[in-house]
Amino acid sequence: MARNKRRARDNRRKRREAFTTEQYDVRSLHEEREYGLFWYAWLWKLIRPVMAFLCSVLIVVGMVTVAWNWAYGEFLAPVDSMSAEVVSFEIEDGASVATIAQQLVDANLLRNADVFEYMVQFEGLTSSLSYGTYQLSPAMSVSAIIDELTSGSQTNERVITIIPGWTCEDIAEYLVGIGALEDTTEFLELCNDVDRFVGSSYALRAAYDAGTLEGRKYALEGYLAPDTYRVFLSATAESIINTLLEQNNNVYDDVFYTDTPDYYADEDGTIHEVETFQTTLTMDETIILASIIEKEAANSEDFARVSAVFHNRLRMGWRLESDPTATYLSGEDRLIVPEDEIADQNAYNTYYVTGLPVGPICNPSQAALEAALNPDLTYIEEGYLYFCAAEPTSGELVFARTLEEHEANVAQYRPLWEAYQAEQDAQAAAEE
Predict the structure, then answer these.
(1) Are 325 and 349 in contact (CB under 8 A)?
(2) Pair (132, 163) in one structural domain
(3) Is 325 found in the same domain as 218?
(4) Per-residue pLDDT tens for 249-278?
């Protein structure tokens, strides 16, 4: 029994010695951290400041990026990066950087005038901005616009576009509107200075020699060719008129003096020469008729049909009764012409005069001139004598042979004309 007690005491002593703190010394702790749970402690002491630095850098970079994106979008980005529009921008001689910057903003080409002015001055490019006309786009950034304006790509020309059907007054107002002329006075006065321009247009010369220019509102009405032109920024009213008159000589050559016949193939494949209309009108009378056709037909497909109606009425000695001739002197283009204008006794009003008016009522296109010279032969043969507008916004015309057919057409479409005219009058009143 005593032996067993001693053995038990020895075993307890050995177990206590196995777990004594004296055996878990510094070396044992180092080995535990080196190969156990705390082996990376020394590495963390190195990594922690590096990670803190990197996080700080990322935060700063993020803040700078956000600030730059805001500044770029607010001041430097294109006005419309998806735009395909090209704008002719003119810098006038002597314009300041501030003026140019504001004009770019007004033209919707720039977001901020101050940024443009600062960048030009900071880069020392003030003296590199040259006057002239540049082709710019809302899709260009501030830097791209500055590069263009200092590239020397400017032109000393401008593009003008004269629309078929415009009158001399329309052209004068357009030229003033784009800055080509200061006012309409000189241009319109020159439109009655026949002696100055008679040598520039042989059609004008023919009318002058025939004495048919007397009584016209503007002697040059009808002879200013609609087209797109490039003229110098310094072009005067006289030089612009000469350019338009000279272009009309080219148009008249193509219309009146072409020797090339047209051909068509029938169902059997046989080639035939297209039959042409033998007109009795002079060149000047053809120009007058073309001006009426231009005003009456919104679609060029109807030019030859309208021409046929007027030729039939001329042949029968009837009045043309064309609404645009009744409103020419007033300049009011209305779908429904007031009775007082229809009854006005003037040399342009074809409700009053028999035959053609005293002169052209606009400047017609080449297509209208060709239609005046070559009316639709089917409509000639079938005796069409009337036409009127269909639905106003479509630009379509409906034709009739008899007065009864014409009156039925007018009764059908007149409510649409009245509603359209009322809408136009209301819109005009709202804009005043």
Answers:
(1) yes
(2) no
(3) no
(4) 999 999 988 766 666 666 777 776 666 788
Residue 420 lies in a domain: yes
In 3D, which of 140, 160, 315 has the Cα closest to residue 237? 160
**Unique residue bearing structure tokens 């080449």:** 366
Q: What CA–CA distance (Å, rounded) separates 341 from 324?
A: 10
Whether residues 141 and 125 share a domain: the answer is yes
Per the domain annotation, does 60 fall within a domain?
Answer: no
Mean pLDDT of 307-317: 97
Residue 82 lies in a domain: no
Most distant CA pair in the chain: distance in Å? Answer: 162
334 and 352 together in one domain: yes
Rounded to an integer, what distance in angstroms lies between the CA atom of residue 180 and that of residue 233? 7
User: Does pTM surpass 0.90?
Assistant: no
Q: Report the domain count for the chain.
A: 3
The more confident residue out of 236 and 128 is 236
Instruction: Report the pLDDT value the prediction gives residue 22, as an integer from 0 to 100.
Output: 47
Q: Count how many residues are written for the chain.
A: 432
In a shared domain, residues 310 and 417: yes
Residues 178 and 217 grouped into a single domain: yes
